[in-house]
Amino acid sequence: MHSVDRERGRDVVRWLAGAVAAAVVAATGAGTADAQVVEKKGLTLNAAKQVIATAVGEARRVGAPGAVIAVVDDGGNLIALERLDGTFPAGAPISIGKARTAATFKKPTRFFEDVIKNGRTAMVALPDFTPLQGGIPIVIGEEVIGGIGVSGAASAQQDEEIALAGAAAAKTLKIGAAGGELSRRVTFIDRQTVAAGFEKGQVLVNAGNYMVHASHRDMNGVAEIHTLDTDLVYVLAGSATIVTGGAVPTAKPIEPNELRGTAIVGGESRRVARGDVVVIPAGVPHMFTDVQGPLDYYVVKVR
Known about the structure:
Blueprint: H1 2-35, H2 45-62, E1 68-73, E2 78-83, H3 91-105, H4 109-117, E3 135-140, E4 143-151, H5 156-170, H6 191-200, E5 202-206, E6 210-217, E7 223-226, E8 230-244, E9 252-255, E10 258-261, E11 268-273, E12 277-280, E13 286-302
Antiparallel strand pairs: 1-2, 1-4, 3-4, 5-6, 6-13, 7-10, 8-11, 8-12, 8-13, 9-10
Helix pairs in contact: 2-5
């Protein structure tokens, strides 16, 4: 009986040893698997729409009303497409092809057009490949998260310039592993903070896809073009002439999506005063002149 008990005891020990070993292997494997999982940035539909809004503003600025703009994810899957009035029927598939090529090959499509022009014509046989200028990868940090493609502008160079503006807009977005979802937190700003904001002329809220400015002006402004933002202006005090539309021959970029110039040529003038509201779409030049008294106004910038 004693020998049988000892053998049973050994069996129990062997079983426990095996169970412990299996648990160690499982834990080690799980740790290895966890180490191989990385967070990946991606474009949401909202972010893609903001990229397109910038590109549309740039298209209007350079005089390309017939552009077609496509945004894809890093796998080349279409997220959003915008067809401006007056474009041609093949514009959509061409712009999608440019965006897909830029995203999946991680290079501007102009690179491949130049390679083929230099004699490597065999590349045209690649599947899902559109080697035409106007496709730009969308990059956040060192990571390609998608692509933008443009067709239908006056020239291939304009296609690329519009795409570059859209791709640059993505760098201003708060894009994380979830793709940059918007906050739903309610914001309250007390009257003292608002009053101080108007004294200095400063941003009251910056939520990524919209901003609220408390603006104060004692003198004439400069010509402004926001390729990303639509401005909703509400005048609280004072009066001024606002000039909108036309062209800004001296426009120069001061930062991504923002251009400034000395004057507007061919714009439309309106007198605005307390209680007036003006909505200025992205890409439309505008400036204040003939300012009377301190001009205080809210600007809600929508992206």
